[in-house]
Specification:
By secondary structure, this protein is of the alpha/beta class. It contains 19 helices and twelve strands. The protein is elongated, with a radius of gyration of 36 Å.
Length: 609
């Protein structure tokens, strides 16, 4: 297991940028593209928000009228007050019902968008080249699809629920206040920019902190995923203390940046509330002076009653309240946009090279087993050469063994044959077709592959064996398991072939997992085979039996065998000896031993005793 070394944050990058250099505008446009699928619901939500705000703002008018009907000794109009109270009850009930409907619409929109976002992200993972998967921590990718998508949905829902209604409330409140008293409305409006300035200043400074928080959270998820996935290796090498120290360091950084982000964002509400209280005090003071003096609006001259002043005070509260909500929403939206940008960075990642136009779908019956490799050059990174000037011609039915020291390019050749990576130059032909002119699915369908690293999914033993042939019968599955010498241990499992195993085989031993992978290939029996250390985890006695099964399986099929144990490839028709990305020797076992070259040294080093 490779322990990832993470660079400490330097002073130069304290201001974290949006992922991949994205801007709010670019990310916003991408979010709007997803919103287009919900035009009807969005329009309905907007209409409901307008109606809700109108009804909510109508209540203070009714309250003011009721107060005016109760001023003066013995001058209380109970009938009028009763009618107004009935109206208030009807309006409040209608507002509550419409609020519920609007929340239903907003939830459908939000979680629909996030569902599509996650689906597109997962679909993109299926299209990404192997180079992306190799160069990005698994935990970081998981964090984008799960955690960042969740953060985005929370911010988006808050935006729909509070942002629109908040803006409409501000505009509606101003309209109602103007209809009552223009002078006092101007007092409110003149103080408003101060509240906006405070909110904007704090929001601007919290963005970088939320971006840093999101990045550090992904780093922590990647470390946790790595350590849990390789827990046995961690324990075997007594790496627990180092892992804890590494986790504590990241956790400490996450705590600090999260605390700063929350602290600065939490300043928004009390600061804007302070300004809003100034607005309320200003309305109360100016209105009270007008009422006491018996004056009216300085502009229109209309009188200001106690009931009207009560309505204005209520509107002053309602006018300033959305600013508090919007400032909080903006902070959440900032975090949401940063998280959305990380998900879009995954979705917009460069996919694998698309298949050629009119790519040919190679049928199994057309695969004759001929493989021709001509002048191939390849490297994982431009600054380090690996495969160079690689030439090879394989005829139908030949068994080709690839041997050499670690890092010489053996597994890389397999990656190129399967087109997990594309060659930098040169070409590889299968059955007379350049593999870049074939569909990837038909090319890979032509190979049966057993690797040293096993892969099993969560499910039954039966489902894992039948992965390449889902319509296989029970008899076929059992026959393949018997041929792979896996049937005996499968029968001893609690439910036999219906035993459910966890991710990566659960409690099965490495050897048992490898036997299941061998049975999977034996069930399909494709035209060509790739065996990369296929029996590395199997005991010698079982390996000898499986070699017999492999011999039958490889008969008449072109086979590529990568092996470190040279005793397993003695019967190969052609042995390729590789070093530094080149074929340095080629021939059968006897010929290479007689040549007394690099292969002979490898053989003697294993069997010198």
């Amino acid at each position: 297991m490779a322990i990832i070394k993470r660079k400490k944050t330097s002073a130069s990058n304290k201001r974290a940028a949006m992922p991949n250099g994205a801007t709010y505008k670019e990310t916003g446009k991408k979010v709007l593209r997803y919103l287009k699928n919900y035009k009807a619901l969005f329009s309905l939500s907007l209409i409901l928000a307008i109606v809700i705000v109108a009804l909510t703002l109508y209540v203070p008018v009714l309250v003011g009228e009721a107060i005016d009907l109760a001023i003066g000794k013995g001058n209380v109009d109970f009938d009028g007050i009763y009618k107004i109270l009935l109206k208030i009850g009807i309006v409040a009930g209608a507002t509550a019902l419409l609020q519920w409907l609007m929340n239903v619409c907003n939830n459908r929109i939000t979680f629909g968008i996030v569902r599509r976002l996650r689906r597109d992200a997962f679909n993109k993972i299926q299209e990404l080249p192997l180079s992306y998967v190799d160069s990005h921590p698994v935990g970081d990718t998981v964090s984008r699809v799960i955690s960042d998508a969740d953060q985005f949905s929370d911010g988006l829902l808050m935006g729909f629920s509070q942002l629109f209604t908040g803006v409409l409330t501000i505009l509606g409140t101003i309209a109602f206040m103007v209809s009552i008293n223009i002078s006092i409305t101007l007092v409110v409006i003149l103080v408003t920019p101060l509240s906006l300035f405070v909110a904007a200043f704090i929001a601007k400074n919290t963005h970088s902190l939320f971006a840093k928080q999101s990045k550090t959270r992904a780093e922590q998820t990647a470390l946790i995923d790595e350590m849990i996935g390789e827990q046995k290796v961690v324990a075997a090498f007594s790496h627990e203390d180092e892992a804890l120290a590494q986790f504590d360091e990241i956790n400490e950084r996450l705590a600090k940046c999260s605390l700063k982000a929350v602290f600065y964002s939490s300043l928004t509400n009390p600061c804007t509330r302070f300004v809003n209280n100034l607005v309320y005090a200003g309305v109360a003071l100016v209105g009270a002076l007008i009422c006491v003096s018996g004056g009216g609006d300085f502009i229109t001259g209309l009188p200001l009653t106690v009931g009207s002043l009560t309505s204005l005070l209520s509107y002053a509260n309602q006018y300033t309240k959305p600013f508090n909500e919007i400032s909080g929403v903006i902070t959440e939206l900032q975090n949401a946009i940063v998280c959305a940008a990380r998900v879009f960075e995954l979705i917009d990642a460069e996919p694998q090279i698309p298949e050629a136009e009119n790519a040919y779908d190679l049928q199994d019956t057309e695969v004759d087993g001929r493989v021709h490799i001509e002048n191939v050059e390849f490297s994982y990174t431009p600054d380090r050469e690996l495969i160079k000037d690689f030439n090879l011609s394989i005829e139908n039915g030949q068994r080709v063994a690839i041997v050499g020291p670690t890092g010489c390019g053996k597994t890389t050749v397999i990656n190129l044959l399967m087109r997990f990576y594309d060659v930098n130059s040169g070409k590889i032909e299968v059955s007379g077709h350049d593999i870049r002119d074939l569909t990837r699915s038909s090319l890979r369908r032509s190979y049966g592959m057993v690797l040293q690293e096993t892969w099993l999914k969560s499910g039954t033993i039966r489902e894992n064996i039948a992965m390449g042939k889902p319509d296989a019968t029970d008899e076929e599955i059992k026959a393949a398991a018997k041929e792979a010498h896996a049937h005996s241990f499968i029968r001893q499992l609690p439910k036999g072939y219906d035993t459910v195993i966890g991710e990566d085989g659960g409690a099965l031993s490495q050897g048992q997992k490898q036997l299941l992978c061998i049975a999977r290939v034996l069930l399909c029996l494709p035209p060509m085979l790739i065996l990369d250390e296929a029996t590395s985890s199997i005991d010698t006695r079982t390996e000898m039996k499986i070699q017999d099964a492999f011999a039958k399986m490889m008969k008449g099929r072109t086979s590529f065998v990568v092996a470190h144990r040279l005793s397993t490839i003695k019967e190969a028709d052609v042995i390729l000896v590789m070093n530094n990305g080149k074929i340095i020797e080629k021939g059968n076992h006897a010929k290479l031993l007689k040549a007394d070259g690099f292969y002979a040294k490898l053989w003697n080093s294993q069997f010198e005793n």
